[in-house]
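Morning!

This is the sequence you dropped in the shared folder:
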Amino acid sequence: MTIRTILVDDEKLAIQGLQLRLQPYEDVEIIDTCANGREAIRKIKTEKPDLVFLDIQMPGFDGFSVVKGVMDIEPPLFVFVTAYEEHAIRAFEANAVNYLMKPVDEQKLADTIERVRQRLAEKKSAEDAGQLLDVLAEVAPERAADFVETTAAATESEGRFEKLINVKDRGQIFRVEVDRIEHIEAAGDYMIISTGDNSLVLRETMKDLERRLDPRKFQRVHRSTIVNLDLVRQVRPHTNGECFLVLESGTEVKVSRSYRDVVARFVH
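The structure's back. Tokens below.
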């Protein structure tokens, strides 16, 4: 699959530097470059790229104005590239794939391209499903109805839950993959998110965070603790009907009696 890409930056040297760094990626095809926001909006609408590397600080229309300017079409994926760290939060609010600092680090660029590939693969799967539905509607209308119901249920249950959580901690923005979260502990209006090798503090209530997580994977096992059930490696019984869950990292999390039904799925 070719990733049709446009580069947007008012600095010619920055464009050239990014072109060089993207050369090793054979599936990335740079179809155009733009020196300002107005030109970028026009070319994105006419050429419909898959991906746009977008500078934020530009005269006239800045990067965020470009994003707003193409919301009347199906927008491409955006990666913000800038010298100004303070724009990071707005970049993630704009649902950017990533936020790269100049000069672009090669490993972070590699991670970004991999994220882009994943996002586009998910989009392609959705398109394939739509084409299959069209065929079914012609040759077997009753099966098409079944397909719609099944697909809608799966999309509703999966699509509304987070895959990445942005955490502002110690003045930095961390993008945490939800599947890597082992457990979450409440501390007032703050959540301590543990991934096994790292812990980050998120200002959010337990109730609000629970709404963002898939309940098939994340379950509360204590009044102030949520656990990723996929990363449970052992159940260790304790007194008074309580028990401990041993997680992938070796961390032990206590399950209170009022949540012992969560453990039942591990013993059947």
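Headline: The longest strand covers residues 28-34.

More detail when I'm at my desk.
O.
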